[in-house]
Design a protein that fits this description.
It contains eight helices and nine strands. By secondary structure, it is α/β, with parallel strands linked by helices. The protein has a single domain, classed as Ribokinase (UDP-N-acetylmuramoyl-L-alanine:D-glutamate ligase, 3-Layer(aba) Sandwich). The chain has a six-stranded mixed sheet with strand order 3-2-1-4-5-6. α2 (about 55-70) packs parallel to α3, α5 (about 140-145) crosses α6 and α7 runs antiparallel to α8. The protein is globular.
Length: about 270
């Protein structure tokens, strides 16, 4: 019996905590056959991004077509896309292959503050990629940019941003509230008709590198298994909450979440 297939289109994190590496770890833990298309190489560790080498758009297309022509994918996610040419190339390939279960993680800035999406690419994401998405997963800063708002700093702002992002063509959006602070980390899902609040306890753990990548990868894996969107969002939220709680120090900066927490690894 064939395993569900999940494809990540993203950058490589040489430190292993985010990007392609985090996605493939998550796919594997969630019993999904993982595939990858690299959009950029980064020289990266827990202290920050020390260099970025973009992959040329034609080679991004070559990777995508090689995977989808032969193996196919039950769900696909995008992460770091870097520039407008790559965004356009990815969108065109996904349309050509009629990809239905697309999770768009609009990665713009790393936790270290390094920019991972050039300004000229933001409009391309809004116009070409989001209309193809089953679910978009921005944090509050990314949601504000995509929605054309000055800021997203409270639950009402999250609702307005969600409505505007769905209006761009996405079938649903998960606005992540982790950057807002407070005793809980509350996300908001909207499918164009109904809002669902997804609260979770906030863990006192600074090792959160790769949080967004891991959440969107878990969501992609669950969609590949045929889980309905809202249930997939809830399952992905549960997975990342556990991964943050069980994270432990690696390196000298902000360590990664623990992708293997369900297999018995704990922090410390």
């Amino acid at each position: 019996m064939q395993k569900p297939r999940a494809l990540t289109i993203a950058g490589s994190d040489s430190g292993g905590g985010a990007g392609i590496q985090a996605d493939l770890k998550t796919f594997t833990v969630l019993d999904t056959y993982g595939m990858s298309v690299l959009t950029a190489l980064t020289a990266q560790n827990t202290l920050g991004v020390h260099g970025i080498h973009p992959v040329p758009a034609p080679f991004v297309a070559a990777q995508l077509n090689a995977v989808l022509d032969d193996i196919g994918a039950d769900a696909v996610k995008t992460g770091m896309l870097m520039n407008a040419e790559v965004v356009a190339t990815v969108a065109q390939c996904l349309q050509a292959h009629a990809v239905r279960n697309l999770v768009v993680d609009p990665v713009m800035v790393a936790k270290s503050g390094d920019r991972l999406l050039l300004p000229d690419a933001v409009q391309a994401v809004r116009e070409q990629l989001i209309p193809l998405a089953a679910i978009v997963t921005p944090n509050t800063e990314e949601a504000a940019i995509l929605a054309g708002m000055d800021e997203v700093v409270n639950p009402d702002d999250m609702k307005r941003a969600a409505e505007r992002i769905v209006a761009l063509g996405a079938r649903s959006v998960l606005v992540k509230g982790g950057h807002l602070g407070g005793v809980t980390s509350d996300d908001l899902w909207f499918d164009g008709d109904t809002f669902h609040s997804l609260p979770a306890p906030r863990h006192n753990n600074r090792h959160t590198h790769g949080t967004g990548c891991t959440l969107s990868a878990a969501l992609t894996a669950l969609l590949a298994h045929g889980v309905a969107p809202l249930e997939a969002v809830q399952g992905a939220k549960y997975f990342i909450s556990g991964a943050i709680a069980a994270a432990y120090p690696i390196g000298h900066g902000i360590g990664p979440v623990n992708h293997l927490w369900q297999r018995g690894e704990t922090n410390g």
